[in-house]
Amino acid sequence: MNSTAIKVEGLRVDRGHRTVLNGLDFAIPAGAVTGLLGPSGCGKTTLIRSIVGVQRVKAGTVEVLGRPAGAKALRSRVGYVTQAPSVYADLTVAANLRYFASVLGVPADRGDAALDAVALADRRGDVVGRLSGGQRARVSLACALLGEPELLVLDEPTVGLDPLLRRDLWRLFHDLAARGTTLLVSSHVMDEADRCDRLLLMREGAIVADGTPAELRERTGADDLEDAFVRVVEAVAA
């Protein structure tokens, strides 16, 4: 596997007359958990959409696993979990997994392992529309895991989850990375920054910091990563 999973150069995205992302340049290493952190509205979802190839870009390039973002060859290699659950509300959990397994062309019995991974094995017979928002999000994640993707892109996957489930999901993310999967996980909750191998901090459509949690602390002289983020933003604005 190439040591770089995602390479972005000069990425610009406009929405109407407003520039949402302005000339982003960064690379994401393979086989690690990279956190994309920043306040709501800073451009995280637009960047994620650009990486998975469903966003129209104004300028620049996005390369994913050695190919242009959105290339047909990437469809079986990239898993994408959106903020809004992307499963069928009128089907049971098990039926959703069977359906997405057939779409992906993978054995249906992978659904059992995927449900175990997201702690929903006891809900396999439940209709998705009757689940909580956090449970529906975990069904979406289970469906994304079916294809055993090389790159897993997760847009705020822990929103609405209780602390124990958040902890267990982050353990899963690191287990997947240890087996070679690259993960890009967005969040607006700064206490999740310490759970990442590497961080991309966003503010108003720009990457204001790129490095490990330890490097960010050293750069800013802050012990707390939220304080470090504030210091980075203040330095950029100065």
UniProtKB/TrEMBL annotation:
Keywords: ATP-binding, Nucleotide-binding. Residues 6-229 form the ABC transporter domain. InterPro entries: AAA+_ATPase, ABC_transporter-like_ATP-bd, ABC_transporter-like_CS, P-loop_NTPase. The keyword Transferase does not apply. The keyword Glycoprotein does not apply. GO terms for molecular function: ATP binding. This is ABC transporter ATP-binding protein. It comes from Solirubrobacter deserti.
